[in-house]
Every structure is written in C-alpha cells, then in structure tokens.
C-alpha cells in the first residue's frame, strides 16, 4: 500500500455503436405474421454458439415484422444483455448499449416495411446465454407516452425523468446522469461544456422511450432540453397538438481530490474486498490485455485518471477517488484482437473484479 496525493482529473466519454453491412432481407418481403393493431414484433434465433458463459460467444439473427395495418418507415428493437454478454459486431442495424440494455435501430435501407413485411439484422455476442426476449416499436403504431416503461440507463449515479422538468441537479466531475423520458419526447440536447453524452436511444420518432446517459466532464453548468413531438405536426395543414417543453439545469463541481491514502490493487487481487474512506484513492494496475474497468454502481467512486488497457497495448492504470459512502464493484475482462474476427479464436477471456466498501 502506498500513499499519493497527486490526482489528475479527466473526463472520458465512451459510446458503443457498431455497424457492419451485409446483404439484408429485402424490406417488404412476405412474412408469416399477419397485420394487427400492434406496431411490430421481433424474435431472436441463435444461429451458432461456442464456449460457455463469459468466455464463449454466439451469432444471433433477429427477425423484425411490421404487425401494424400501416406502412412503417423506422423500427427499433431493445433487449437486456445476459450476464457477461457484450456486443462484438452487428450488421443490417445500428446497435448501441447503455449499461445492460441494448438497442438496435434500422439501417437506412431496411426501415421501410409494408404491413406484414419483415427484415432481419444480426450480431455477434461475446458471452453465451439463451435467445434474448425482445421489445419492438415502429412509427406505424408508436406506443402511448410512457409505454413501454420509461427507466433510466443502468448504472447512472443520478437519474431524471419528465417529472424533473425545471429542476437543478448537482454532480461531481466523473459522475453520470441518466435521462428517461416517454417516447413522444425528442432525444435531449445539451448546452455548455460540463456534460458529455455517453449514449442516447429512443425518442420521437422511434416509438421507444428516451434513455440517455451523460458524464460530468468539467466543472461548470450545462442545460439538458427536450420537447414532445407528433407526426401530425408535419402534415398539411399541421395539427394543433400541444408541445411540452422539458429542461433540467446541471451544476458540476470538481471532484474531491484524493487527500487520503492510495490503495493499489493488481491482477493478484482478483475477487478481493477493499476498504476505503471518503477521500482515499483506489489505483487499479493491470496488464495491457484488460479493458478499462466499469464501476457498478458508480456513486461511491469517481474515476480521476485512465491510461492504457486493451486495445492500446499499454499497461492499464486507472485511479478512482472515493467520494461517497457505499459499496461498488470495479470489474473488467481481458480481450484480444482475435476475438473480434468473423470466426473468433478460442482464447478464453479472464474476468477481474474487486469489491469496494467506502465509509465516511
């Protein structure tokens, strides 16, 4: 155990969006699901799988059907990733993740579906599990405001909803803010330099609820704004449907410096429990094959420094400052270039985690 009082504060924004193109099923092709009053349906099929648990992988094909009696121009599919799973690549759709929630949005060439028509997209997953249970929406029959359920992104330190309109939120640099709004709201826009967008899914006109995640990257202020929208606003003549405005003010404060002791953990500390006090620094030192760690929940710890890790080829060094009492897991997994090939190598991935308890 060593003692250090120098901490460099940085903010790192990360997003996971992958898109690879292959030959799609023609939009408008025949489907076995008849039109109905609903919007769309989506089913998943595991085409192939190898290994087991987090060290395995699988190829999944998803079939999306327009079950509405109207033509659709866009569709969105969402699901919860299994334990240890992550998206490696995807084709015929843009797939993003926020916490354990994955969302696929149609590509430019396969969003238009006539009633009863279908299309497919595929993906490669790291980690195995049963075929996911999917939810689906499109612009032919968008869900009513608030349905499906509106939930903030997983792992956010602070979450706001439509009910928080006009409020002011305070964050430390490094903490995250989750936004959950009904499907008839546009994706939020952010002003100022204090917040950086991590991910954003749903919102008008996708038919899915807004789920957005922002990280506090600099001391200062930012405003998050949105408003409701409706397709009838764009008809001739436009309708008089009311528009609801939404605004949240965000104050970001500098994270407390690591004025206490520094506790360093390495590869040999896997599964260890670490005790910290507010103001202490946790230093994670791992070989270059490990990806940058995640913290869940991230409230007790704020990341202050990050260098190296896969795929940089440099040793991974991450520092966290304990800012609040609570418990959190700091975890990561090894990775390698061969795992991302069309036919991944059988090299096992190694998980690493430390359990952290912070007291005041």
UniProtKB/TrEMBL annotation:
Q: Name one Pfam family in it.
A: CBM_2
Q: Does the keyword Signal apply?
A: yes
Q: Using the record's annotation, list all stretches that form the CBM2 domain.
A: 33-156
- Provide the leader sequence positions: 1-27
Q: List UniProt keywords, sorted A-Z.
A: Signal
Under the heading Gene3D superfamilies, the entry gives: 2.60.40.290
**What superkingdom heads the lineage?**
Bacteria
Question: Is Iron-sulfur among the key words of this record?
Answer: no
Q: Can you name this protein?
A: CBM2 domain-containing protein
Taxonomic source organism: Micromonospora solifontis
- Lineage, top ranks: Bacteria, Bacillati, Actinomycetota, Actinomycetes, Micromonosporales
């Amino acid at each position: 155990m060593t003692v250090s009082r120098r901490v460099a504060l940085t903010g790192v924004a990360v997003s996971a969006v992958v898109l690879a193109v292959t030959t799609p099923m023609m939009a408008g092709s025949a489907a076995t699901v008849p039109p109905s009053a609903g919007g769309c349906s989506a089913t998943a099929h595991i085409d192939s799988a190898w290994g087991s648990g987090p060290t395995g992988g699988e190829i999944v094909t998803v079939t999306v059907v327009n079950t509405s009696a109207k033509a659709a121009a866009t569709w969105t599919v969402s699901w919860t990733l299994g334990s240890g799973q992550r998206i490696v690549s995807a084709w015929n759709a843009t797939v993003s993740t926020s916490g354990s929630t994955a969302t696929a949005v149609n590509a430019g060439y396969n969003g238009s579906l006539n009633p009863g028509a279908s299309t497919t997209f595929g993906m490669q997953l790291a980690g195995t599990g049963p075929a996911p249970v999917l939810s689906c929406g499109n612009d032919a029959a968008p869900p009513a405001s608030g349905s499906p359920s509106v939930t903030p992104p997983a792992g956010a330190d602070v979450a706001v909803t439509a009910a928080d309109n006009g409020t002011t939120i305070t964050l430390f640099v490094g903490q995250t803010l989750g936004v959950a709004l009904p499907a008839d709201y546009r994706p939020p826009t952010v002003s100022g330099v204090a917040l950086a967008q991590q991910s954003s899914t749903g919102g008008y006109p996708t038919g899915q609820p807004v789920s957005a995640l922002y990280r506090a990257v600099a001391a200062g202020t930012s405003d998050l704004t949105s408003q409701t929208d409706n397709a009838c606003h764009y008809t001739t003549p436009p309708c008089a449907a009311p528009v609801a405005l939404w605004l949240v003010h965000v104050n970001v404060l500098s994270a407390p410096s690591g004025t206490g002791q520094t506790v360093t953990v390495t590869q040999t500390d896997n599964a260890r429990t670490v005790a910290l006090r507010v103001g202490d620094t946790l230093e994670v030192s791992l070989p270059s094959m490990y990806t940058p760690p995640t913290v869940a929940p991230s409230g007790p710890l704020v990341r202050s420094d990050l260098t190296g890790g896969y795929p940089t080829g440099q040793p991974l060094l991450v520092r966290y400052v304990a800012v609040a009492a609570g418990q959190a897991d700091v975890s990561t997994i090894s990775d390698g270039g061969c795992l991302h090939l069309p036919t991944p190598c059988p090299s096992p991935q190694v998980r690493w985690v430390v359990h952290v308890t912070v007291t005041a």
